[in-house]
Hints:
Helix content: 55-70%
Number of domains: 2
Distance between the termini: 33 Å
Radius of gyration: 18 Å
Number of strands: 5
Strand order of the largest sheet: 3-2-4-1-5
Largest sheet: 5 strands, parallel
Number of helices: 9
CATH topology of the largest domain: Cobalt-precorrin-4 Transmethylase, domain 1
CATH class of the largest domain: Alpha Beta
Strand content: 5-15%
Structural class: alpha/beta
Amino acid sequence: MFNITLICTRHEELGACNSNELYQIIAAIHPEVIFEEIPPSYFDKYYTHKSHSILETEAVNKYLETHNVRHIPVDSEHLPFESFLQDHTNMNFRIEGLADIHGFTYRKLTDIYISQITKYGFKYLNSVYCDNYFSELDDTIVNGLKKLNDDRLFQTYKIWEEIHDNRENEIIGNIYHFSQDHSYNRAICMVEAGHRKSIIQKIQAYETAQKIKLSWSFYNYEYYR
């Protein structure tokens, strides 16, 4: 009881990372519950009105055509404003444009990331190689910010990290709160790959303080080539 598989994905299709491949993964696990990285207020536009879609909701909607499953939005309602997202995009653009080792490394890492997703899809997104990419990218961003030495960019990075931390905590908390009141044998939780390493660490820490214990599996490819 309470078996959950963490599946890391992305919101946009790219090569082997597409809604059909994700559907195949979901169908192979055959979950009774799907925990989704969307805020509750987004549910209707993805599933009732279907006025919007992302890779994950396309796969879930396809699964719902032939399976009876509960799908639960577990993300925070406190998502960043568009103006902040523009600031964050500008921060990355500034680092990418650096004419030094930091800019070069940022561009090289991004190219590798895109090529690996295109070729290997979810096998890459759920591997230690992808974890390493995000760790290296974060180090590059921090070093690039030091080079730029712009207080506003530092503040943007700090806020972005806080947003991610709070969202991950809320996602995990919502899953455990749901599990306290509902029984199930198989579930999946889908989050973007950038959350994978930290959310696994948080799950392991969270388990020690909870009355209810969930049996987590991590859809993991240690070697995918």
